[in-house]
Amino acid sequence: MTDSAVAAARPGRLRAAWASAHAPVPGVPRWARAAALTVPLVVLPSSLWRIAGVALHLPIVRHTGGDESGDLPSWLPIELYVVLLSILSELLAFTAVGLVSTWGEVFPKWVPFLRGRRVPTLAAVVPGAIGATVLTCLWTWVFVMLAFGRNIAGDRLTADSPLNADTWQGALVVVSYVPLVAWGPLLAAVTFAYHRRRAHGA
Fold first, then answer.
1. Taking CA 70 as the corner, what is the angle to CA 66 and CA 74, rounded to the nearest 5 degrees?
2. Which of 32, 38, 116, 181 is the most exposed place for a label (fewest CB within 10 A)?
3. Cα–Cα dist 137/190, whole Å
4. The pTM is what?
């Protein structure tokens, strides 16, 4: 096969992989599919903000002049850390799509030893329920604290804090992270629909 033929085949493979990853299971309610597809989108703004402000150093972050690497080990640059964190966040968010897609009920071909086998219902429901609970509590707490002018630890925000919404940079942080409040409830709804469908199917 020539290089041009290989290049031409790649978009087709990507489209096929995309369609396969999003192929809905018969019987999935329309609202559950919409909720599942929304989950990666509510995570995306914060991921883009981290990459743009911290990894690419665009002037959208209000820097305090201190050490922003926190407790990261010296061998891990903060730029690499936020990119990896953002990718991981999106991958975790994408698991919600599996709760309405075929690969959430039957292990795909690329999973060794399990390919083609049915996914146990509780293997998806338990992590989904735990994740939904943790995410709902976490992001609700974060924004309740911000509403009272405090950080996640409960300390009052200082005037030069990057989270201070009195500046446009701080307001942009809040706008980028506010959608995360919906992550937990959306995941809970999709997990409930998954459990109900699998239990009814069984």
1. 105
2. 116
3. 17
4. 0.84
